[in-house]
């Protein structure tokens, strides 16, 4: 059966935890509206107790979006939960996201709490939050470095207290896809109501595995993916939601999963985040990088001209990006140069290319990309 996957966007919360990124309220509202067009199911608009600005941003986003669910983040503390209640009061659809760390390193070195105290705190905070929200999402922070038995106990406690969404954060991007599969197997075996709960994952990219881990989780029982646009976030960032969505689309044969994501809004959403965060998207970034649909070498350009499917598994139109380009450089072949000249209006054939192509190569050897102007100049020179 086809799985329905929810997308939870935390660009405005975890994404803003990127060093140097600070969206103003106006930008946050614009981003939230664009995320709504992109089709995400939940927007994590901020951490209301953290600052007056965050509180106001969550309130403004709650008023601005209509079809997308809005959440605020709260530690397992009454004051944090109260701030979320107030900040999301005008949201048409809302939920809350409560978290506490469960791994031994966080319990002992950061929280100074015993296992029993953490369990009590989960129960108290989730039951308190459940009085105000129908949907309570609980995250055991650093879940992937938590002892498997204690992870089960923490999650079971949250479910007993009223949580209907359990998010598994790979807080430090430590786990690999095979381990994510094992983690889900353990939860499926030991959580009796596994199928009644929405399981979510929140993967960080410290070892470059955030997207792969998110996709592995879809295969193993997760039906909600958390991440950010362009993968921005703490340290190496979060799972890039546009990459997860594109992988689900291209590999539908494998994941057999659908979502509400409107892929044609991908590039626009990515550009907006890049502008407001002042973080240029790397040229070679999957799906939204400038080079994602550019083909440089002669063999690849020849293949593309014969059948674009030789080297493109996703077309730029699908993600709302600019057209495929075949930039001409020193690795380009005569076939691609001839096609370009014909497009520019020149009547060239295989014989005239024997004169033109050596001139092209001479120019290409001294420049990165041979421009249309360069080609005009070559054509004047050869005079064919
Ligand atoms: O990375 C993390 O663990 C988080 C939690 C608050 C979900 O961002
Ligand atoms: Zn995170």
Automatic annotation (TrEMBL):
Its EC number is 2.3.3.13. Pfam families: HCS_D2, HMGL-like. InterPro entries: 2-IPM_HCS-like (IPR050073), AIPM/Hcit_synth_CS (IPR002034), Aldolase_TIM (IPR013785), LeuA/HCS_post-cat (IPR054691), PYR_CT (IPR000891). Keywords: Amino-acid biosynthesis, Branched-chain amino acid biosynthesis, Leucine biosynthesis, Manganese, Transferase. PROSITE patterns: AIPM_HOMOCIT_SYNTH_1, AIPM_HOMOCIT_SYNTH_2, PYR_CT. Pathway: Amino-acid biosynthesis; L-leucine biosynthesis; L-leucine from 3-methyl-2-oxobutanoate: step 1/4. One of its GO terms (biological process) is L-leucine biosynthetic process. It is an enzyme of class 2 (transferase). Residues 5-267 form the Pyruvate carboxyltransferase domain. One of its GO terms (molecular function) is 2-isopropylmalate synthase activity. Belongs to the alpha-IPM synthase/homocitrate synthase family. LeuA type 1 subfamily. This is 2-isopropylmalate synthase.
């Amino acid at each position: 059966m086809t799985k329905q996957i929810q997308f939870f966007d935390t660009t405005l919360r975890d994404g803003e935890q990127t060093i140097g990124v600070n969206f103003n309220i106006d930008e946050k509202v614009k981003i939230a509206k664009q995320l709504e067009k992109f089709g995400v199911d939940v927007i994590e608009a901020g951490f209301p107790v953290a600052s007056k600005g965050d509180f106001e941003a969550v309130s403004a986003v709650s008023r601005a979006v209509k079809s997308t669910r809005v959440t605020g983040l709260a530690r397992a503390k009454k004051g944090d939960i109260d701030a979320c209640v107030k900040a999301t009061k005008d949201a048409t659809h809302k939920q809350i996201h409560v978290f506490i760390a469960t791994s031994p390193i966080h319990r002992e070195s950061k929280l100074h709490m015993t296992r029993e105290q953490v369990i009590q705190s989960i129960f108290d905070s989730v039951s308190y939050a459940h009085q105000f929200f129908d949907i309570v999402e609980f995250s055991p922070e650093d879940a992937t470095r938590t002892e498997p038995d204690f992870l089960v106990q923490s999650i079971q406690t949250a479910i007993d207290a009223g949580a209907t969404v359990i998010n598994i954060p790979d807080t430090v991007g430590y786990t690999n896809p095979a381990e994510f599969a094992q983690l889900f197997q353990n939860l499926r075996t030991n959580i009796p109501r596994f199928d009644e709960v929405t399981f979510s994952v929140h993967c960080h990219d410290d070892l470059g595995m955030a997207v792969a881990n998110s996709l592995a989780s879809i295969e193993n029982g997760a039906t909600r993916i958390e991440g950010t646009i362009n993968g921005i976030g703490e340290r190496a960032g979060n799972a890039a939601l546009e990459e997860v969505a594109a992988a689900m689309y291209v590999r539908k044969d494998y994941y057999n999963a659908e979502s509400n994501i409107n892929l044609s809004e991908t590039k626009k959403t990515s550009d907006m985040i890049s502008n407001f965060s002042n973080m240029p998207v790397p040229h070679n970034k999957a799906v939204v990088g400038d080079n994602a649909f550019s083909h440089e070498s002669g063999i690849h350009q020849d293949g593309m001209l014969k059948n674009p499917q030789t080297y493109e598994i996703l077309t730029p139109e699908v993600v709302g990006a600019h057209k495929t380009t075949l930039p001409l450089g020193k690795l380009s072949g005569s076939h691609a140069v001839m096609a370009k000249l014909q497009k520019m209006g020149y009547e060239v054939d295989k014989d005239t290319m024997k004169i033109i192509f050596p001139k092209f190569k001479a120019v290409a050897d001294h420049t990165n990309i041979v421009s249309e102007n360069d080609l005009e100049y070559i054509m004047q020179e050869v005079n064919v």
